[in-house]
From TrEMBL:
The entry's keywords: DNA-binding, Transcription, Transcription regulation
UniProt xrefs under CDD domains: WHTH_GntR (cd07377)
Protein name: HTH gntR-type domain-containing protein
Pfam families to which the protein is assigned, alphabetical: FCD, GntR
UniProt cross-references to Gene3D superfamilies, sorted A to Z: GntR ligand-binding domain-like, Winged helix-like DNA-binding domain superfamily/Winged helix DNA-binding domain
InterPro entries: GntR_C (IPR011711), TF_FadR/GntR_C (IPR008920), Tscrpt_reg_HTH_GntR (IPR000524), WH-like_DNA-bd_sf (IPR036388), WH_DNA-bd_sf (IPR036390)
UniProt xrefs under SMART domains: FCD (SM00895), HTH_GNTR (SM00345)
Keyword Transcription: yes
Domain HTH gntR-type: 16-83
GO molecular function per UniProt: DNA binding; DNA-binding transcription factor activity
Domain of life: Bacteria
UniProt KW Transcription keyword: yes
Length: 239
C-alpha cells in the first residue's frame, strides 16, 4: 500500500508568508502613527483584527522587537517603543557615521542595474510625494537609500543601517507630513543619484552626510516647536 505524501512543507511556507504579512502590517501601523508610541499590543486583538491566529502575531512582534519598534515586558506584554530627543539625536549621529561610509564603498561597485533600480525607486518616491501618499514615503525612502548602499557589500553595516532607517521612518514622516524640507529632500536624492552615476565619491559622501544631518535637525526643530505649542517646553532630552 502506497502512503499518500504528507503535505507539511506547504503549511510551513504558508505560515512563514502569513508571519511576513502580519509583520509588515503591524510595522506599517506603527510607522504611520496609527498605533502610537507607548501603546500596548494585545496579541489576541491583533490576531482578530488581521484574521489570523496568535502564532504569526507572536512571531511578528518578536521580529519587530529586534527592529526596535516594540519592546516586551514581563506581565505586560509588548508595547510600542518611543524615542526621546536624545535617542533621536543618537540615531541620526549613527546614521551620519555609517551611511557616508557605505556610499563610499558602494559607488565603485555600482552597476547599471543598481543605478536603474535606484532610479525606479526614486521615481516612485517623487510620485508619492506629489500625491501625498504618506504611507509610501517612508518605505520608498528606505528602499532608495538601501539600494544605493547595497553594492558596498558590507553586510553587517547594512543590517545596522536598515534598522536605523526603520526606527527613523516614523519621525521622518512627521517632517515630510508638515512640509519640512520636502523640496530639499527631493533635491538631495536626485543629486545623490547623479553623483553616484558620475562616480563622484567624495561629493556623494559629503551630500549623504549633509542630507542626514539636515533631516535630523529639521526633525528636532519640528518636535521642539510642537512641544512648545502643547506644553510650553521643548522636547525632553531623555525618555
Amino acid at each position: 500500500m502506497v502512503k499518500k505524501p504528507e503535505k507539511r512543507q506547504p503549511k510551513i511556507v504558508s505560515r512563514v508568508k502569513i508571519a511576513d504579512s502580519v509583520t509588515d502590517e503591524i510595522r506599517q501601523l506603527i510607522l504611520s502613527g496609527e498605533i502610537a508610541d507607548g501603546s500596548p499590543l494585545r496579541q489576541d486583538a491583533l490576531a482578530e483584527q488581521m484574521g489570523t491566529s496568535r502564532i504569526p502575531v507572536r512571531e511578528a512582534l518578536s521580529r519587530l522587537e529586534s527592529e526596535g519598534l516594540v519592546a516586551s515586558f514581563p506581565h505586560k506584554g509588548y508595547v510600542v517603543t518611543g524615542l526621546s530627543r536624545s535617542d533621536i539625536e543618537e540615531l541620526f549621529d549613527l546614521r551620519t557615521m555609517l551611511e557616508p561610509d557605505l556610499i563610499r564603498h558602494a559607488i565603485p561597485k555600482m552597476t547599471e542595474e543598481d543605478l536603474a533600480a535606484a532610479t525606479a525607486i526614486l521615481e516612485e518616491y517623487d510620485a508619492a510625494l506629489l500625491t501625498g501618499d504618506v504611507d509610501t514615503w517612508g518605505d520608498l525612502n528606505r528602499q532608495f537609500h538601501m539600494a544605493l548602499y547595497a553594492p558596498s557589500g558590507r553586510a553587517k553595516t547594512l543590517d545596522i543601517v536598515r534598522g536605523l532607517l526603520v526606527n527613523a521612518d516614523r519621525y521622518t514622516r512627521l517632517v515630510l507630513t508638515v512640509g519640512y524640507g520636502i523640496d530639499k529632500a527631493q533635491e538631495d536624492h536626485g543629486g545623490l543619484l547623479d553623483l553616484c552615476r558620475r562616480g563622484l565619491i567624495n561629493q556623494a559622501v559629503a551630500l549623504t552626510r549633509d542630507h542626514i544631518e539636515r533631516t535630523g535637525a529639521d526633525l528636532l526643530e519640528m518636535l521642539d516647536a510642537r512641544d512648545r505649542e502643547t506644553t510650553g517646553e521643548p522636547a525632553p532630552a531623555t525618555a
